[in-house]
Amino acid sequence: MADRLGRRPTMLIAQLSTAVSVAVLGFMTHPVAIAAVAFVVGMASNASRPAVQAMMADIVRPEDRVRAFAINYWAINLGFAFSSMGAVFIAIAEYSYQAGFVGEAVMTLICAVLVFVKLPESRPERAKDASGAVVDPKVGLGMVLRDGRFMSVVGLSFLIALIFQQGYVALPVAMGADGFSSSDFGVAIAVNGILIVALQIPVTRYIEHGDPQRLLILSALLAGYGFGLTAFAGSIGVYALTVCVWALAEIVNSPTQMGLVVLLSPTHGRGRYQGMYTMSWSVAALAAPLIAGQVIDWYGAGWLWGGCAVVGSAAALGYWLLMHALPAEDVAATRWWRC
Asked: Does the pLDDT at position 96 exceed 70?
């Protein structure tokens, strides 16, 4: 949709659909109805992600893209923090859960209005010959899947996302098994959001001119061994310390990897490429609880944390091989990150 209809129409359709479906979800009571409407909410809300990312790549200068993606990631986490506080307020005030769903629908609708009023279409014009026929090659899903370099990035993104998901899937289970309460987990995991909100922008200023290969390798190792250190945690303080390590990995990895995705995406196929990249995180969100549950049940949480360290090391090696395998012209194109 982002490539065919345009970035702006896709965002409007996605956000209007999200507003309606979220409002409807608040009134569903039967489990099957809840699941069906939740499926629509997930599809509608995620449809805007590739369009947003493609629009950012369209309108932001190459040398500023890492910073732009970092600010976007910062804004997402800031919104997550406020939404969490809003959910707590609703629970404490004993309002109905429907108020939360309706409130989200209204805010999403406001976002759609802002897009309609403020954002012009950014999709680049296609090149045409003298007769007016489009000469740009058509970018289809098959082309994306056959792009070995890009699909390598998607695969590595899946590994990194699989690690990060453990903070919300396995960490609460492991802390509960160690005798900690839900509020203890809340304290530990809150460190993640606080660090991202506090450090994302200043850290990005420091890394935006760095070598992307080193940054991606560093972030993979920090993620893997940050979770690996969880095997030695025995107090809330140590758990929070491990969260600090992998939160820093998030801060470094997200904008740097997004910049690499844009680099490898053809201009008129950015929507499809961004969609495939985003799907790597969705697949990881599906696989993470299945894998974590089996490993913890069969071998214990310690093996899971050790496995995270192994996966992080494998991802770091993958980034090293990928960047070394890039053609000379693509290696030269990455210099804007370092200039």
From this structure: no
Helices 236-264, 65-92: crossing angle, 10 deg rounding: 140
Residue 61 has a CB neighbour count (10 Å cut-off) of 9
Q: Name the residue among 266, 290, 312, 281 with its Cα closest to residue 149.
A: 266
| Range of lowest pLDDT (35-39, 165-169, 261-265) | 261-265
Q: In this predicted model, what pLDDT tens digit does every residue of 216-252 receive, in sequence order?
A: 899 999 999 999 999 998 888 899 899 999 999 988 8
Residue 279 buriedness (CB in 10 A; 0-12 / 13-18 / 19+): middle
Burial class (CB in 10 A: 0-12, 13-18, 19+), 297: exposed
CA dist., res. 17 & res. 120, Å (int)? 20
2 in any annotated domain: no
Measured CA to CA, the distance from residue 48 to residue 57 in angstroms comes to: 14
Q: Write out the residue range of the structural domain in which residue 24 sits.
A: 7-118
Check residue 178 and report its DSSP letter. T
Q: What is the pTM of this model?
A: 0.78
Q: Could you tell me the two tokens for 90?
A: 């609703």
Residue 250 lies in a domain: yes
Residue 215 CA: distances (Å) to CA of 43, 189, 199, 203, 246: 32, 24, 16, 12, 14
Q: Do residues 217 and 301 share a domain?
A: yes
Q: Does some domain include residue 129? A: no
User: Is 219 inside a domain boundary?
Assistant: yes
CATH number for the domain spanning 208: value is 1.20.1250.20
Longest dimension (CA), the chain: 73
- Which residues, in sequence order, are bridge partners of residue 134? 128
Interval 248-275: pLDDT, tens: 998 888 888 888 888 888 877 888 888 8
